[in-house]
Amino acid sequence: MNRHDLHWNPVCRLDDIVPDTGVCALLDERHVAIFRVGDDELYAIDNVDPNARASVLSRGLVGNLGERIVVASPLYKHHFDLRSGECLEVPEHSVGTYAVRVEDDTVLVAI
Amino acid sequence: MKIVLIGHGMVGHKFLESLEACGLQAHVTVLCEEPRPAYDRVHLSEFFAGRSADDLSLVAPGFFDRPGRVLRLNERAVAIDRAARTVTGSSGEVFPYDKLVLATGSAPFVPAMEGSDRPDCFVYRTIEDLEAMQAAGRRSRSGVVIGGGLLGLECGKALRDMQLQTHVVEFAPRLMALQVDEGGGRMLRSHIEALGVSVHAQKHTLRIVDGHEARHRLEFADGSHLETDMVVFSAGIRPRDALAREAGLALGPRGGIAVDEQVRTSDPDILAIGECAAYEGMVYGLVAPGYDMARTAAAQLAGKDQRFRGADMSTKLKLMGVDVASIGEVHGRTEGARAFQFSDERKQVYKKIVVSACGKKLVGAVMVGDAAEYGTLLQTMLNGLDLPVAPEALILPASDGQARPALGVDALPDAAQICSCNDVSKGALCAAVRDGATTVAALKACTRAGTACGGCVPLVTQVMKAEMKKNGVAVNNHLCEHFAHSRQELFHLVKVEGIRSFDDLLARHGKGRGCDICKPVAASIFASCWNDFVLARDRAALQDSNDYFLGNIQKDGTYSVVPRMPAGEVTPDGLMAVAMVAKKYGLYTKITGGQRVDLFGARLEQLPAIWEELIAAGFESGHAYGKSLRTVKSCVGSTWCRYGVGDSVGLAIELENRYKGLRAPHKIKFGVSGCTRECAEAQGKDVGVIATERGWNLYVCGNGGMKPRHAELLAADLSKERLVALIDRFLMFYVRTADRLQRTSVWRENLEGGLDYLKAVVVDDSLGLGAELEADMQQLVDSYACEWKAAVEDPETRKRFRPFVNTDRPDPLVMFVPERRQIRPATAQERSPETETTA
Q1: From CA B99, how far away is CA B177, in angstroms rounded?
Q2: Taking every annotated instance into account, which residue ranges of this chain make up the domain Rieske (chain A) (predicted)?
Q3: Do A60 and B838 touch (CB under 8 A)?
Q4: Among A35, B522, B750, B813, which lies 20 to 30 A Cα-Cα from B448?
């Protein structure tokens, strides 16, 4: 996909995401997990945990391991880097990432 | 220097690693007859338990990429020309050498008998042997191992892992006749049989012929026979010395290539190491002496003086999950030696120590079923340490409240070899600790101690802790990278400083953003101290998925719904209400192990509506999630049962209602039985109550699950008021002091002072905390509110229960298929391709 094909999709209001938690959006049949870390940092990765094949990553606990900002999958506790999508324990099970931004209190995700 | 190494097994590879450690610049060619480089033969049976050949590999990636190293796979050495100093390989290629190292290992011994070469008869040595066994296993129902020694039992495990009906046939009257004595052999046999493996001792197999019901029939000398589909020979090993013999090298009296202290053969340019070598006539069939020889050989070639002076044959293994250890001389052959034995038929533990005539030195030891003292006893023998006055205490279980007279690691000299596989001394470990290695993982990484067989890890840990203590370093019990405190310390800080938010806790005592370890711990501590609504906006982000959605997450991302049914009592109307909900939402229904009705397959968005209906029917959250009180199981007690002496149901309901929702370091379960027949299995619970003629007996710290533990009697014949007060104190004491995810059973095992101390604190109030603990519990009881009720009534919380934030469509990845007239999650194959590929 070319850069200019990126389409910014409005997803929800910023206030719909409790700080330090995630929500899941359905965009073009993709399950995208969007995390609000602290008050204003946003990250988006695939929501399907490849280790369990269930759409659950947005329900994981958010935190940091060293320099990495991560979510721990609620099923088997694998950690995913929110910036790169890398699965720390099983790198071959890493997930995709998406660009995300806020405009007038609306959260937008590009796919 | 040109070195040729024949054989790339564990010992051969250790030689290469040792060469590198010595810094010797040499050109090394390795001839390996197997199709793959060195792998861990000691853990071969794990291949059947799912480890791959790659997992077993001993060779670091890139090891042979460096200049001066050549590995020739599938190249068997067929001849040595000592005059020309060359080795000829099976490919016909000739390899010149300055120094030759023989590490040809051993071959399995197959006893002479008719039919031993029939199809589906195997030896157990290489990965190829295992692959052939695996293929045969798929078309077999039963398997026999001939040989009940170390390797034979390992092999029995492999057959059992293939789900074959497994038999072990041993010529001697008992298993592991070389290593353990008669008592140990007996205990070992009952362990092995309990695992479903049949043991046939004192059986001499004469021939293998066609079977009637299975492929083969083993005919024994006593006239009996045994039928089986496959046979594996594991009756010992023979050194592979043919190549050396043909080259004219001297052999040991019972075979093996004769070597001296410098592991040189009769030709000084040829060395031999491992199971093909015989030192003072002895062939060592263990990996540790082989490693020692490998290090000696490398040192020799590098011009250093290191000598092999024989090896101790002590071993510790886990055979089919059973600990077996043998130290020194255990058959009572030492003159004047005296033996002490301990045997516990219930726990299936057997221990014996043999002590010298003077009573001061350890001669040998056997342990079956539990080998916790292996490291200490081995060091005591190897270093000739003096035994305590009553040496039997070394193997007797420690009685409550008393520390065992440990032979502290302080007594060991710095030279004591703690890890024999990797030759790591106590001195080296202590030095590493002083350099900052303060976890077992760090010690393993920098010294390699404990990385081979792992038998020395408990002793390594002891040495580490002792050295840390000596250096004034606190043993690390930090919760995670964000908090340099234990859970117990954090609890104290939260309570004393009145901290109510994670941000506050982090700002005062932690760093970073927190993680999936410290957040739930903080949430649990806040709940135990303040009991505020767990899903309030500033606490919601701390909750694990189960607490966040007030259900137990299942493998497909759906949740379970469990309405509380205190003590398992439920009215027909209640049952009907539950059934109506289950039917309406299409949920899978099952009675749990804890006397409740579990409803599975609830989608996130259905949870609030389901709970609204259950709450309307009079139910509340069953807390079948998170770390909290689950159920209080009960029998029907004196109300209905002709034997019951107390109202177990009435009491169980009261207790369940009192402690419901209590957040703890681990989930907690109760049981109340109406009489000593114990139909509620109360002694398998964290808190167990049993009715007596005079009141109630209180048992604590029992556990079902993976590591069962019987509960212990804390106090007897209590009135109900006293009982409740003691449970209050006990639970609150546990909640305050246990580690994260520590069950009461493990907490109890680690409690210094044991049961006596627990009794002193809880029953006799020795710390004067009784009233405070009771008051804390009463505050939690008084502030209880059903979380589900709060959740469904709060629009903000309720909004979180939706699969997608931008659409009301249900999650298409959640799919069910019918089974036995209910639903179950679809398997990956059952899902349609278009929903499988969402990305």
Answers
A1: 39
A2: 9-109
A3: no
A4: B750
Q: Is A1 on the interface with B (CB under 8 A)?
A: no
Max intra-chain CA distance, chain A: 38
Cα B352 from Cα B350, distance rounded (Å): 7
> In chain A, which among 22-61 make CB contacts under 8 A with chain B?
23-27, 29-31, 34, 37-38, 46, 48, 52-56, 59-61
**Does some domain include residue B809?**
no
**Residues lower than pLDDT 70 in chain B:** 332, 398-408, 452-455, 474-476, 832-839
Token code pair at residue B218: 């083993």
- Name B224's Cβ contacts closer than 8 Å, sequence gap at least 6: B203
Interface of B with A (CB under 8 A): 481-482, 512-516, 518-520, 537, 540-542, 544-546, 548-549, 553, 555-557, 799-800, 803-807, 809, 811, 813-814, 828, 838-839
pLDDT in tens, B261-307: 999 999 999 999 999 999 998 898 888 899 999 999 999 999 888 89
pLDDT tens digits, residue range B149-171?
Answer: 888 888 888 898 888 999 999 99
Q: Answer yes or no: do B131 and B251 share one domain.
A: no
Tell me the two tokens of residue B56. Answer: 């077993």
Residue A63 and residue B513: Cβ atoms within 8 Å? yes
pTM for this model (two decimals): 0.58
Nearest to A14 by CA among A82, A102, A99: A102
Both tokens assigned to B132:
């052939």
| Residue B675 marked ligand-binding | yes
User: What is the CATH classification number for the domain harbouring B28?
Assistant: 3.50.50.60
B641 assigned ligand-binding residue: yes
Q: Which residues of B touch A61 (CB under 8 A)?
A: 515-516, 519-520, 541-542, 544-545
Measured CA distances, B443 to B315, B359, B434, B466 (Å): 22, 36, 11, 14
Domains of chain A, start order:
3-110 (2.102.10.10)
Exposure string (b/e) for B694-716, b if CB count within 10 Å is 16 or more?
A: ebbbbbbbbbeeeeebebbebbe
- Which residue of A55, A65, A77 is in closest CB contact with B557? A55
Is B121 flagged in the annotation as binding? no
Sheet holding B588-591, edge to edge: B552-553, B559-561, B597-602, B588-591
Predicted ipTM? 0.94
